[in-house]
Each structure stands twice: as C-alpha cells, then as structure tokens.
Amino acid sequence: MRVHICAVGRLRAGPELTLINDYKTRFDRSGRALALGPLSLTEVEDRKGGGPAAEAALLSRACPQGAFTVTLDERGKMLSSPEFAQSLARWRDNGHQDLAFLIGGADGLSADLRQMADTSISLGKMVWPHMLARLLLTEQLYRAASILAGSPYHRA
Fold first, then answer.
1. In the chain, where do the E strands start and end?
2. Could you state, in order of their start, the residue ranges of all structural domains in the chain?
3. What pLDDT digit, counting tens, does each position of 28-74 carry?
4. Residue 39 — φ and ψ, nearest 5°?
C-alpha cells in the first residue's frame, strides 16, 4: 500500500525536513517487507489566500484517486502507537492500494474535507504547527512499521 502525506505549505530546508527525510527513508526500508510504502510527500500552497476551502480543493487534487483518506485533526480519534500500527495494517489488509494523510494549513481543514475523509485521527489534545505535524506523522509511520515488523524500536 502506497502511503501519501498531502500537506498545505512548503517545508524549507532545516532540521524538520532533515528529520522527515530520515523517518521517510526508515519507513520505506522497514515497510517494504510489510507491503507498506513507499511514502511520498505532496505539498500544496494556496497562493491566493482562499483559506481552508481553497486548501481543501488543493488537497483533494493532490490525493490519489480512490485512496483511503485520513485527516489529521484535533477532533480526530486519538490512537496509541500500537493502535495506529494496527490501523495501518488493517487499511492495508482491506486492499487499499493508496493511503493518504491530509494535513491542513494554519487554520486547519475545512469541514467539507473532514466529512469527505474516511477517518480522522489526532496527534493529541494539543494543536501542533502543521510543519511539526508532518514530522510527528512520519515518525509514527516508521514506528508503526517497526511495531508490525517486531523491531525493538518501540518500547512500550
């Protein structure tokens, strides 16, 4: 199952991008044997300032046709790392060829986009900057692959 992160905003060179690329590489390596990956990141930018509605249209176009969609939203379901790993395995085992995680901009995701998604998850009760949400998600994807592979990376 190919995994996509579709996010609003451009991530510039810096420590966040370095870490995201590191976790992406780790996920691609460990996920391959589990039929997970590769992981791709698509960035969209609303240059006209249309807000969440315009960003939703851009994210929808960036999302692969027929993908199982997961929004990252503070109102979403909070999962432990093992629960997230089991969700990832379940989505893969249900025959989804593409899985897309949608991350909104500074003002979050539009209500229409949240309703359209197959499910919604939260990274916790705190709100994270959308750039850090990408980093947290890529780390959790790698952690999930490690859990599914029985690797000692996750210590519960």
1. 2-8, 39-44, 68-78, 98-103, 119-122
2. 2-149
3. 999 999 999 999 999 998 877 788 889 999 999 999 999 999 999 99
4. -100, 130
- The β-bridge relationship of strands 2-8 and 39-44 is parallel
Distance CA 11, CA 43 (A): 8
pLDDT, greater one: 55 or 155: 55
Q: Which CATH architecture has domain 2-149?
A: 3-Layer(aba) Sandwich (3.40)
Report yes or no: 25 and 38 within 8 Å, Cβ to Cβ: no
Give the Cα separation of 121 and 23 in Å (integer).
20
Q: Which helix (H) or strand (E) holds 137?
A: helix 130-149
Of all residues in the chain, what percent carry a pLDDT higher than 70? 99
Cα–Cα distance, 68 to 143 (Å, whole number): 20
Q: Work out the average pLDDT over 114-130.
A: 92
Answering whether pTM is above 0.90, one says yes
Q: For residues 95 and 92, what is the distance between their CA atoms, to the nearest angstrom?
A: 6
Burial class of residue 81 in the structure, from the number of CB atoms within 10 Å of its CB (0-12 exposed, 13-18 middle, 19+ buried):
middle
The answer to whether the beta carbons of residues 109 and 78 sit under 8 Å apart is no
pLDDT score of 156 more than 70: no
